[in-house]
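Structure tokens please, single chain.
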Amino acid sequence: MGRNNNRSFGVISLLGLVLWVFVSYAPQRAWAENPDITEAGDILQIVLPATAGVATLFEKDWEGTKQFTKSLGTALATTHAMKVTFRKLGPGESDKYSFPSGHTTSAFSGASFIHTRYGYLWGIPAYLAAAFVVYSRVQADAHFLDDVIAGASIAMLSNWYWATPYSPQVALTPMAVKDGYGVQLNVLDTPLTNPAARSEPEVVSYPRWRFEFSLRRAYLSENKVTAPSDTGTQFSLDHFDKIDDPTTTAAVGLGISLDDRHEVNLWFAPFESQDHGYFNTPVLFQSTVFPTNTEIRSSYRLYETRIQYDYNLNPSGPWIGKVGGALSGKWAKVKLEMKNGPLAAEVQKWVVLPLLHLLGGYQLTPKLLITADANWIRMAANRHFDGGISLRYQLNRHWDVGGGYRFYSTKFDAGAIENEVTYQIAFFSMGYTF
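Here you go.
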């Protein structure tokens, strides 16, 4: 149970971090980079993993030293491989190595190891320091929000695979004797912290938590914008050059199975892209008229936070059926500016929509599961549909991998902005159940 609490605290910290950075960054006011915050983040992303490594040496925790080396090495190698593979443009087209954030991977590798290995007392301030590193990258406009989500997720998953709580090699356990009770002293040849020496019973207990990291390639099919919705000129960002399409993005989710029938899921999924192109006719956008035959740069961000409840209709059979509902909070931000001119304008707005959720699936083998799901609503000028099919393979009782396809289409009218956007998404996911 203690290890499960460690994992759940780490996931909640990540999701809380996402919300904190988003709420801090999203309000309708201009942010400018603070060089002191940026420099402090640069320092902390080195200090945190260094502290974790030095702590293992100070404690003479040689098993911890090995675990941290493997955890940090796996996380950094994965991050670097993804950077050179996907070559995602950073904000402002700064570089092509924005995804995932290396600073965040480094900081969260140190923080999550300190927490897992040495507990809450050291873990809480370490996570706060890692959160500051994330904030430093976003406020500096060095990374998109999904870049830092990916970096933190990679670090935490790597840590959960390699790291275990620190325990001494001497253990006291209660025992019963003929005329009373006693205590048994066990001196272990292999430390309790050695993952190869652990033996965990195959027992399903509730609540069960599941963290999922989803790596996505999102292909833009449509993106129509009107701002304000009643007087602005509708234009299509999908008619621009699509320099950032398909875009690489990430989503994270936390599922809680309360028992074999009831579960709650929390998801955060951002879509972020930038582009440039020309308008065929003058466009009125937020009281600013953008002319024709002039290169325009666009920045588009759509963040969706979803909380969802599901009821499992058939928890014991090979056929799976779930029905439920969700609340979807969407935040959209669109910015236009002339490449070589004074004109610039932006708009951002929240909207909340209820959704109906349906899921069906079949257990092909004890380890292989295929599912199809859909989320839908149509209400006044707002509509939403997303659905897809996925295949998931259970590696062991904790780990699973999967992949599939999703179709995502939403239209909302928030007064200040009307946005109709459609993506087709190919994804790979990794889940950890605890």
